[in-house]
Design the sequence.
């Protein structure tokens, strides 16, 4: 069976107004084995000034690799969410992210269908997504990079439509980045869903949802940026771990939470199960 490791999505330092490198150092201090950086196109004022954790893909990809090696925190994936339904945005962004991932040492890039155009139909959107994913797969396959599709918007939180999305392209590079919190908020049972698609898993967003948020938003939204500390909310982590222990591939649980304290408590809790 594969190994389960624990990582942290760099969103945990979003509100600390610090640089990417500061966030990696903090992840190492807490004790995480992996991290999941976020990348963006072009230049952005806050990250350029060292007040935000996102890394520009105009930077040298070795910036991420050097931080990883300096602080001893490996890269589990790159957060490269881009709207697959809008190829004028997503296609070149995703292709560049895949090349960037190869150089910086990330085995997975994560994405979803994103916000759709108001005028397109479902069938048109799936044609657009197929085009983007096929072109991206052509770049990912020779580099050994996985594209992790995540539940996050109007189509991907519906299991039947998510299956259709995952099967648009026949490529070993296309897999699933399962998001426990988004699948739950979308009105589904994460445990049942994970069991069904575990064979396609390449990465997992370990996102818990507080009881308060659950009561307010479940069935009303398709996702949320971050959750509460793992173990503080509604997700059955024991079952999630049990399922992931039955698959042959190694998986990183990338914790998605909003504060340093939540990150530390998530790691402590997940370690008791893993």
Sequence:
């Amino acid at each position: 069976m594969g190994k389960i490791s624990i990582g942290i999505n760099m969103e945990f330092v979003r509100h600390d107004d610090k640089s990417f490198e500061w966030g990696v150092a903090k992840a190492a201090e807490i004790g995480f084995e992996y991290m999941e950086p976020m990348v963006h196109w072009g230049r952005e004022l806050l990250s350029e000034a060292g007040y935000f954790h996102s890394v520009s893909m105009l930077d040298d990809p070795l910036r991420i690799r050097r931080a990883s090696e300096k602080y001893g925190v490996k890269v589990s994936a790159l957060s490269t969410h881009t709207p697959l339904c809008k190829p004028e945005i997503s296609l070149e962004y995703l292709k560049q992210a895949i090349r960037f991932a190869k150089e910086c040492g990330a085995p997975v890039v994560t994405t979803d269908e994103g916000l759709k155009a108001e005028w397109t139909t479902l069938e048109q959107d799936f044609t657009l997504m197929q085009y983007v994913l096929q072109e991206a797969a052509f770049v990912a396959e020779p580099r050994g990079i996985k594209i992790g599709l995540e539940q996050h918007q109007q189509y991907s939180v519906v299991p039947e439509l998510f299956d259709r999305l995952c099967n648009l392209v026949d490529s070993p590079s296309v897999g699933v980045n399962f998001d426990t919190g988004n699948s739950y908020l979308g009105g589904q049972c994460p445990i049942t869903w994970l069991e069904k698609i575990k064979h396609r898993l390449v990465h997992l967003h370990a996102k818990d949802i507080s009881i308060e948020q659950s009561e307010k938003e479940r069935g009303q939204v398709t996702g949320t940026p971050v959750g509460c500390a793992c173990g503080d909310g509604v997700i059955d982590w024991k079952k999630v771990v049990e399922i992931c222990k039955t698959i042959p591939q190694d998986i990183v649980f990338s914790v998605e939470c909003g504060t340093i304290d939540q990150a530390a408590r998530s790691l402590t809790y997940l370690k008791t199960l893993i």
Observations:
- The CA atoms of residues 144 and 173 lie 7 Å apart.
- The chain has one domain: 4-273.
- The first strand starts at residue 4 and ends at 9.
- The radius of gyration is 17 Å.
